[in-house]
Amino acid sequence: MILLDGKVASAAVKESIKKETTVLSKAYLRPPHLAAILVGNNGASETYVASKVKNCEEVGFLSSLIRFEADIAEDVLLNKIIELNNDASVDGILVQLPLPKHISEAKVIETINPAKDVDGFHPINAGKLVQGLPSFVPATPYGVMLLLEHYNISTKGKHAVVIGRSNIVGRPMSILLSSNLPYGNCTVTICHSHTPNLNEICLQADILVAALGKPGFVKQDMVKKGAVIIDVGITRVTDETAKKGFRIKGDVAFGEVSAKASAITPVPGGVGLMTIAGLLKNTLQAYKNSY
Ligand code: GUN
Fold first, then answer.
1. Are 97 and 155 in the same domain?
2. Does some domain include residue 287?
3. What's the gap in Å between 105 CA and the centre of ligand 1?
């Protein structure tokens, strides 16, 4: 069984980004710059954004963290995005999701200039992805593709099953895995909460991607022997014995499933780290595109 180690793979991606950034920052007289917007103080979002900012520093990017209270008016947030769109020193803009209920996520996403949409959530980038055109690919599915590439996981002719149909992970993941790409040449089935016979479908998967946000959902009896298991889940589960009062749990029951898998991602230490690598690659690309 191969452990698909996000620490190892993301370190390799970050090392190559860092090298390229050093050269380009000299040529263009400035480093790439990511602006991250955080609304409110959701604990998980705080952690993710802090990690994105820290990783920017590690590869030599500039980052700005812009914070707003949870009760910010929607138009104030939209105006900030427009200001960042017009700021030539900013290459990438991300607004951490979820947003408070009174703010339209769709409006926020559509206000970001697609050329700076390093999350790849804008309908223009989503549409380009569907058509196989160069675009910003959402960071988590992009990170999974980088992980498959790092571990040279063959996808040609394989059956991939994706559980989850979100715009952030499941849907773009299914598109990437079914594209004619070196590491995305699968036949893909996309499943969700209303899929009948889910266990039987999962049992047919050579590559199983769990992205439904239900801790420990994928059990041994849903997995074919020798399957490659990609666990995208990162749910905080209360645990009084843990220092922070919670533990991060994946969507896969790792212990029992790893006994059957040929390769599997751990949680934490798997896809989460690759998400950051995907975001950094997108930010570097946005910076290069601006010249
Ligand atoms: N919330 C959960 N995942 C993501 C992500 O990849 N980007 C942003 N902006 N918010 C998220």
1. no
2. no
3. 11
pTM over 0.70: yes
CA of 122 to the centre of ligand 1 (A): 13
Is 52 one of the annotated active-site residues of the chain? yes
Q: Are 190 and 101 in a shared domain?
A: no
- Ligand 1 centroid from CA 275, angstroms: 9
Count Cβ atoms below 10 Å from residue 255 Cβ, excluding itself: 9
**Cβ of 117 less than 6 Å from ligand 1:** no
CATH of the domain at 80: 3.40.50.10860
Amino acid type, 111: T
Instruction: Please write the tens of the pLDDT for every residue from 222-242.
Output: 999 999 999 999 999 999 999
Any ligand 1 atom below 6 A from CB of 115: no
For residue 7, tell me if it sits in a domain.
no
Please, what is the Cα angle at 278 between 273 and 282, to 5 degrees?
150
Residue with CA at minimum distance from ligand 1 atom 6: 139
Per-residue pLDDT tens over the stretch 174-222: 999 999 998 999 999 999 989 999 999 999 999 999 999 999 999 999 9
Q: Please report the beta strands in the chain, taking only residues with DSSP state E, as ranges in sequence order.
A: 2-3, 33-39, 62-68, 92-95, 159-163, 187-191, 207-210, 228-231, 235-238, 246-249, 263-264
Tell which atom from ligand 1 comes closest to the C-alpha of 139: 6
Total domains present in the chain: 2
What pLDDT, on the 0 to 100 scale, is given for residue 136? 98
Cα distance between residue 11 and residue 44, in whole Å? 23
Q: Whose CA is closest to atom 8 on ligand 1?
A: 96
Same-domain pairing of 200 and 254: yes
Please tell me if the CB atom of residue 264 comes closer than 6 angstroms to any atom of ligand 1: no
